[in-house]
Predict the structure.
Amino acid sequence: MLVFWRHGYEGASLATLTEAMGISTTSMYAAFGNKEELFRKALERYTEVPSAYLAEALEEPTALGVATAILAGTVRTTTLPDNPSGCMGVQGALAASDSGRGVRDLLVAWRQNGYAQVGERFQRAVDEGELPPETDPGLLARYVTTLAFGIAVQAASGVGRAELQEIADTALRNWPPA
Amino acid sequence: MLVFWRHGYEGASLATLTEAMGISTTSMYAAFGNKEELFRKALERYTEVPSAYLAEALEEPTALGVATAILAGTVRTTTLPDNPSGCMGVQGALAASDSGRGVRDLLVAWRQNGYAQVGERFQRAVDEGELPPETDPGLLARYVTTLAFGIAVQAASGVGRAELQEIADTALRNWPPA
DNA sequence: CGAATTCTGTAGTGATCGATACATAAAGGG
DNA sequence: CCCTTTATGTATCGATCACTACAGAATTCG
């Protein structure tokens, strides 16, 4: 997972992957089938562990709490000292060759899924009367995820954790934004 | 340039590149030296043409005008119907293998340069008294570029122009954010 | 303990990568 | 008009890609 995270899908060679996993190519193919399936499993694990902050954030009692937890989790996960900088769901395959289109589409769906979950959570906040009834929960979710993806790109560019957290704080000082 | 824009640096093969340019590999190597130099030239052209909105935006009379023009230009350029979706400066090489580290670092510097230009422009706005003196122009620039990079990721994921422009409008409705 | 079965490492598959050597075609100068 | 020079296309280079065949090691079960 760390290799895919750091180098992306196409930038991670089988040799590097198997060496990091401590197994040989044969064992990897017996266990996963091919490189794309291995990436799918790695993405599942990434979702469950480093990106677990998303599911936890959705359980925050208020919409602002959700947004705050999402951005704080993004900042933390994209700037872990011993892990690659950035978000695997973003830099795993943002652009790819024809052979990597399957994984690229997988990550598009992964990001879309994150957006949809946040949108449903904000819809609930509207339904419950926490957010004004004229609020567009989809737009709000797109706004928060856009900030998160932007933070991920900045982290991949080497921007530090403190500065990114300041950006998150600044953005959410005005809430709801619309 | 379009091939690099669409497939990224490592996802663009020499065969695809030369076919799109209408020349043979020999002519390409005689003219540019190698693939990395070709990418540098393509990035220069990208900066001068599709990304020209940045330089124009910096000449807007107000800081809000600058931010508005940057985000509007980002939305427009990342969702051109006949061009690849997204920003070449982001998806060109966000993650890469070891052999692509040079280009990855080049794009990190490219994004950092964009941030620095915006920061200087906002510093001028502070000096001229347009923005409150306690404003941190660097933080403001990081905020705007974060939104721009986030928009680029969303565009690469297939989000449409109208929705992205709504996000930009929503974000800048509160200005300055800090 | 011994035979069958599962698993793992080594070596090598064709395909494609970026990059070149060589031969041919076009262009420039006397 | 011919020779020199520059530029281009073809065919191929070694390296590496994802992937697999085969053989030996470990394990399981009678």
